[in-house]
Amino acid sequence: MIDLHSHTDQSDGTFTAAELVAQAVRIGLKALAITDHDTMSGYDRAVPFAEAAGLKLICGIELSTKYQGVSVHLLGYFPATMPPPEFREWLAFLLESRRDRNRRLIEKLNSLGVPITLEEVEAYGKTLTARPHFARVLIDKGFAKDMQDAFDQYLDEKGRGYVQRHDIPIQEAIDRIRGAGGVCSLAHPVRVAKNQWDVLEKYVGELAGMGLQAIEVYHSDHSPENVSFYKSLAERFDLGITGGSDFHGGNKPLISLGTGCRNNLNVPDELADKLVTLAVS
């Protein structure tokens, strides 16, 4: 059992790097990728714990991009070599873009009569402050009853307080990942075009032509029908396959590391080794 999609508290998860590694060892994972949003801080912190436990740890990243006017998440993996300093410098630029969105989100919420401060949110956010951290403050202050309510009322695209982030073009993200020696995979494709399979097929074909190397076939949000269809897309467009739970700890309590939502996930072990092949090909 492996998991190639997880988050620590350095991103929008709730587990520390040490806690995430301990959980991976506890459930018997053979390999774990940490794919925090826009930062490798969680991976960096996890390295000594993984080495001590004998766990295969894969450096990863998750980036928010734009394609055809749609928000598309891209996973980047570095299984064969670590990305150069220039890539981390680029990530620092992306983090500053997030901070700008967070400042605008505070202003929007304040204008709606929700008196929260960025300092309160950043107390939860640490390296990267994201919408789940805003949700926790909204819950603390009684403006939402739980995470889902906070997103529904204020933070999702249809919420009253939503503020658009300046996502990067997906071509730039693909080029950056591949230029740094990594493998780029389309994250949770079910969220890209819902179940409009003809639209997704068109997108995946176009993205493969732009340098996309893999597609996340296995994910906690994917039904058996989704998995079968995404496998067919991988075969048709000669893409590799990745998979993972998208574990966030307490921020997504129904998702378990390694096994997904109510045990709907089983990522084949060999996919970890195939990442190396994709990286050096």
Task: Characterise the protein shown here.
By secondary structure, the protein is of the alpha/beta class. It folds into 2 domains: 2-91 and 166-280, TIM Barrel (Alpha-Beta Barrel), CATH 3.20.20; 100-155, no CATH class. Helix content is 46%, strand content 17%. The protein has helices at residues 17-27, 41-53, 85-111, 118-125, 131-140, 147-155, 170-179, 190-193, 197-209, 224-236, 270-280, and strands spanning 2-3, 31-34, 56-67, 70-78, 168-169, 183-186, 214-219, 240-244, 255-256, 260-261. Strands 1, 2, 3, 4, 5, 6, 7 and 8 form an 8-stranded mixed β-sheet that branches. A two-stranded antiparallel sheet has the order 9-10. Helix 1 (17-27) packs across helix 2 (41-53) and helix 5 packs across helix 6. The model has no long low-confidence stretch (mean pLDDT 93).
Structural class: alpha/beta
Distance between the termini: 25 Å
User: What is the second-level CATH architecture of the largest domain?
Assistant: Alpha-Beta Barrel
Beta percentage is 15-25%
Largest sheet report:
8 strands, mixed
What is the CATH class name of the largest domain?
A: Alpha Beta
Q: What's the oligomerization state? A: single chain
Which ranges are low-confidence, i.e. pLDDT below 50, for 5 or more consecutive residues?
none
